[in-house]
């Protein structure tokens, strides 16, 4: 009889222990789900902030690049204008004199023997 009582008490103790473990497991699962939801919310908020910073940085880089391109375009226009004004400022005699000297130097380079005979 005592063995029955002892076994009954052991069953009761094991049942209480099981119920405690079961409730603790349920509590841990609920806490895990809550933490997972909080993590997801945190990641979404962080990504949103990151995207806004990244997009602002991209916009700033585009603005700087556009500004550099416009400065280059202006510089190229100015250099082209200067070259055109330099060439248009010379007289026709100067231009034809330069062309004649270029032809003479090129013929000397090609036919040095003919030029030496003459």
From TrEMBL:
It comes from Arabidopsis suecica. Residues 65-118 are annotated as: Disordered. It comes from the Eukaryota. Residues 65-93 have a biased composition (Basic and acidic residues). One of its GO terms (biological process) is double-strand break repair via nonhomologous end joining. One of its GO terms (cellular component) is DNA-dependent protein kinase-DNA ligase 4 complex. One of its GO terms (molecular function) is DNA binding. This is DNA repair protein XRCC4.
